[in-house]
Each structure stands twice: as structure tokens, then as C-alpha cells.
Write a structure and sequence with these properties.
Helices cover 60% and strands 12% of the residues. The protein has 501 residues and is α/β, with parallel strands linked by helices. The chain has 3 domains: 43-139 and 239-286, Periplasmic binding protein-like II (D-Maltodextrin-Binding Protein, domain 2, 3-Layer(aba) Sandwich); 143-228, Periplasmic binding protein-like II (D-Maltodextrin-Binding Protein, domain 2, 3-Layer(aba) Sandwich), CATH 3.40.190; 292-500, MetI-like (MetI-like fold, Orthogonal Bundle), CATH 1.10.3720.10. Helix 15 packs across helix 16 and helix 17 (397-405) runs antiparallel to helix 18. Keywords: Amino-acid transport, Cell membrane, Membrane, Signal, Transmembrane, Transmembrane helix, Transport.
């Protein structure tokens, strides 16, 4: 018993450090400096060759640069950027490993050394160059605005959008351009271009800013859309480049060498762009959502894995901190209050990103799935702790006294008298928490975990259909939550029967 208490105390002491601000952790001692240097060395050419693979960050939702298709029943990532990444890996003599996540998370992943390079149709803007280094531009592009074809007579230049709503992808160059040069319009940013196209077709926005290559892809696959060139003024290099972590000159040089070779042989225009167009054309012919049923199946599996593990660990954490909060020990009580209040006072998305990018910078190579489960478990534990505490407090203290008068220890009284009754009382509240957890698992898609919402977004990219994949995902979530509700109701009936018996 004494060892268990010591273990619980150790967990409680260490937990706050997991959620300490990144700056505090960085300034605690010089160890963080050496850690950063070690991380920089991880991204060097020598380290990549020794590791035998280069980790490439991408978004995989941006045809023709990077997107997912089905070929012979097998899902694969294709596009200009995917081909470039494979060639870079080949020139380095290593394998290419692609790590997919939201576009606005890619530079964070690069800075925290989750990936070695980012190849995602990224423009080398001066603002981004402050945080990362860039290769030479490998493919030039203009900036267009996609509009509904029925309204093409209304829009010819930027001034025509005054008083209108303009959409752009969060964290993109297009977002910055619209913000700076379309001040008469209202700017709406979303994480996914697919969602912006849905907003355009449902008239939530009047135009979507994107590069011309991407715009042509959407227009070619949707005859209700039209792309116009409003002539944005672009400073610096115009086009797309490979992003590399700061102070990695060897990797920048190796990347430029690959790009120079490809440009010399005109490989982008002769091979990569036509190949991407071919995949897009095939996708248009077979772009029914049902052809991508295995995407949804894979998403369901990951969603259930996240939910099951998070429920298990969340309940354990909740029970531990419920006991801590009821403890007469001031240290344990204070730690429990701090944990519960802090977790409940911060958004789960921030917690997920902090665990993956923040703690992941200290604990190298933490998988996104593991980081997601840890974050969701910690989040759930705070709510479960309060549910358990309220259930225990609802039990008449006279039952505790009666148990002690029968010779039971506090431990036995808690185990055989208090907790069984408390569990019956809190079962509906626990059920609600578990159902919420199943739905909130979609948040981990921001760090590239391939759960249901993530797979739905891939289907949107591959099929150029916005609303229908979302409808299917919505129905799947309903079936999962309805089934879980039936299961929890069955458990509640069993508990009630045991009480009556």
C-alpha cells in the first residue's frame, strides 16, 4: 500500500511538468539547448542517411501537388510533391516516409523536428523564412480566385470583391495576400480547401483564393466553378519551394541539387504534372464516394482505438485524481485541483497539439497516435475525476460509519460499500463522457492521426465532393454513438438489477 501511494505521488508531481509552458521548460536549464542541437543534427544529411529514411511533411489534400487516390483497390498518395519527395529520397539513398497533417501544422512539425522537410505546395514568403529555410522554387505559379461560374460576370479584379466574403486556407500565402490586398472584403479562413469549396458552392463565401494549378484542378473537375486571375501583387519568389529546418545547409543544398536536376530535364512539366493530371482524371471517372469505403473503415478502426484506450486510461486517471482531491493531504489535494481546473480550462485541440509538438520535442519520435491517446486520456481524466468525486460525495456518510463499525478498513469500505453505489449513481454521467470522447476523437486529426474525420477529408480531396462524405461521416458517428448508448443502457440495467437483488 505504501509503494502504491508513493507511485501515485510521483505521478501527481510529474504531471504538471507535462503541461508547463514550452518557454518555461526551455529556460529551466541548458539541457534544452543541447536537446535542440541534437534535434538539428537529426535533420542533417548524415543523420538522415544513417537513419535510412527522410520524413516528409505534407497535407495530401491539394491536387495536383499532393493527394490520395485508389489504384487497384489500394490507397496511395500521388502528385507533384509526392514525386519530388520520392526523388529527393532516392538521391539521398534513403526511403521516403510521408507524414500527413493539416497545412497550418506543417511548419510547427518542422520546427519541432517531427519531419525533416515540408513539401506541400508551400510558398517561400519572407514571414515563413524567419522560422525555416527554403530551397529554390521548384514550380512557379500564379494566384487565382475560384468563383461560382454563374457569377463570373460580377468579378474581374480585386476591387469587385469589396463587401464580399473571401475564403482562404489558414496559414497559407493566399490567406496573407487576401488579408493585405483585399481589405474591402471580409476574409474567412478554414483549415481545408475542400471545406472552402463547400462554402463557395453553398454561397457562404463569394470566392476562394488559391494557386492557379490548384484552381485549374477544381475547375476541371467541377463545371459549376470558374477560376479568374485578379492579378495579386506578390513580393519575393513566386511559386512553391521545399521548407527545411533552420541551420540545415547540407539538406538545403541536397534538395536544391535534386530540384536543379529535375528542372534541367523539365521533369515537372513533362512527367510530374501530366502524371498528377492522369491520376486526377482517373479519380474523376471513378470519383464516387462509395469507391472509397475502405477509407471510412480505416477511420472507424482508428477512432475506436483512440476511444477505447482513452476511456480506459481516462477512467484510471479520473479515479486517481478523484481520490487525490478528496485526500486530507494538502499536496495531493492541491495537485488534483490544479490538474482538473487547468485541463478543463483549456481546449482539447490545444492540449493535443501541445502533447505532440511540445512534449514531443523533448521525447523524440513520439507517434501521432500515441500523442493523441495521451492528450485525450488526460483531458477525459479531469472530467471523470469530478464525476467520480461527486458520486462518492452523494453517498450518505452514515454508510461509511456503519462499515467501519463492522470492522471494515477504509479501503474495504470504499471498495465494497461506497464505490458500487457511487458507480450506479454516476453511470449516466460517465456514459455521456464516453460518448463525447468518441466524437471528440476527431480533434486528433490536426496532428495527422488517420481517424474518421481525417479519412473523410481525404475522400473529399479525392472525389471533389464536399457534403456527401461529411454526410457519411455523420451517419457513421451516429451509428457508433447510438450503439455505445445501447451498450451503456444495458450496463445501467444490470447495475440496477444487482441493486434490487
Amino acid at each position: 500500500m505504501k509503494k502504491i501511494k508513493q507511485l501515485l505521488l510521483l505521478i501527481a508531481i510529474l504531471l504538471p511538468f507535462l503541461f508547463a509552458p514550452a518557454g518555461v521548460l526551455a529556460d529551466t536549464n541548458s539541457a534544452s539547448s543541447s536537446s535542440n542541437q541534437a534535434a538539428d543534427k537529426q535533420s542533417s544529411v548524415a543523420a538522415i542517411k544513417k537513419r535510412g529514411k527522410i520524413v516528409i511533411g505534407t497535407a495530401a489534400d491539394y491536387p495536383p501537388y499532393e493527394f490520395s487516390v485508389k489504384e487497384n483497390g489500394v490507397s496511395k498518395r500521388v502528385g507533384i510533391d509526392i514525386d519530388l519527395g520520392k526523388q529527393l529520397a532516392k538521391d539521398l539513398g534513403v526511403k521516403a516516409e510521408f507524414k500527413v497533417m493539416n497545412f497550418d501544422s506543417l511548419l510547427v512539425a518542422l520546427e519541432t523536428h517531427k519531419v525533416d522537410v515540408v513539401i506541400a505546395a508551400m510558398s517561400p514568403t519572407p514571414e515563413r523564412a524567419k522560422s525555416v529555410d527554403f530551397s529554390k522554387v521548384y514550380y512557379g505559379d500564379n494566384q487565382d480566385i475560384v468563383i461560382n461560374k454563374a457569377e463570373e460576370s460580377k468579378y474581374k479584379n480585386l476591387k469587385d470583391f469589396n463587401g464580399k466574403v473571401i475564403g482562404a486556407q489558414n496559414g497559407s500565402e493566399q490567406y496573407d495576400l487576401a488579408k493585405q490586398q483585399m481589405k474591402g472584403a471580409k476574409l474567412k479562413g478554414l483549415d481545408r480547401v475542400n471545406n472552402l469549396i463547400i462554402a463557395l458552392q453553398s454561397h457562404k463565401v463569394d470566392g476562394v483564393v488559391m494557386d492557379s494549378t490548384r484552381a485549374k484542378a477544381f475547375v476541371a473537375n467541377n463545371d459549376k466553378l470558374k477560376a479568374i486571375n485578379p492579378h495579386f501583387k506578390v513580393s519575393g519568389q513566386q511559386g512553391t519551394a521545399v521548407a527545411v529546418a533552420k541551420d540545415s545547409p547540407g539538406l538545403v543544398a541536397a534538395t536544391n541539387k535534386t530540384i536543379t536536376k529535375l528542372q534541367k530535364h523539365n521533369t515537372f512539366d513533362k512527367v510530374y504534372v501530366p502524371r498528377a493530371g492522369k491520376y486526377m482524371s482517373q479519380g474523376t471517372k471513378q470519383n464516387t464516394v462509395l469507391n472509397y469505403w475502405n477509407y471510412f473503415v480505416r477511420g472507424i478502426v482508428y477512432t475506436l482505438v483512440i476511444t477505447v484506450f482513452s476511456v480506459f486510461f481516462g477512467f484510471i486517471l479520473g479515479f486517481i485524481f478523484a481520490m487525490f482531491r478528496r485526500s486530507k493531504n494538502r499536496i495531493l489535494h492541491s495537485l488534483a485541483v490544479a490538474y482538473i481546473e487547468f485541463i478543463r480550462g483549456t481546449p482539447m485541440m490545444v492540449q493535443v497539439m501541445f502533447v505532440y509538438f511540445g512534449i514531443g520535442e523533448i521525447i523524440q519520435n513520439i507517434p501521432a497516435l500515441v500523442a493523441g491517446i495521451i492528450a485525450v486520456s488526460i483531458n477525459s481524466g479531469a472530467y471523470v475525476a469530478e464525476i467520480i468525486r461527486s458520486g462518492i460525495q452523494a453517498i450518505d456518510y452514515g454508510q461509511v460509519e456503519a462499515s467501519r463499525s463492522l470492522g471494515m478498513s477504509k479501503k474495504l469500505a470504499m471498495r465494497y460499500v461506497i464505490m458500487p453505489q457511487a458507480l450506479r449513481n454516476i453511470w449516466p454521467a460517465l456514459g455521456n463522457e464516453f460518448i463525447t470522447l468518441l466524437k471528440d476523437s476527431s480533434i486528433v486529426s490536426v496532428i495527422g492521426v488517420t481517424e474518421l474525420m481525417y479519412q473523410t477529408q481525404l475522400v473529399q480531396s479525392a472525389t471533389y465532393k464536399g457534403a456527401f462524405p461529411l454526410f457519411i461521416a455523420m451517419m457513421i458517428y451516429f451509428i457508433l454513438t447510438f450503439s455505445l448508448t445501447r451498450l451503456l443502457n444495458y450496463g445501467e440495467r444490470r447495475l440496477n438489477r444487482s441493486r434490487q437483488g
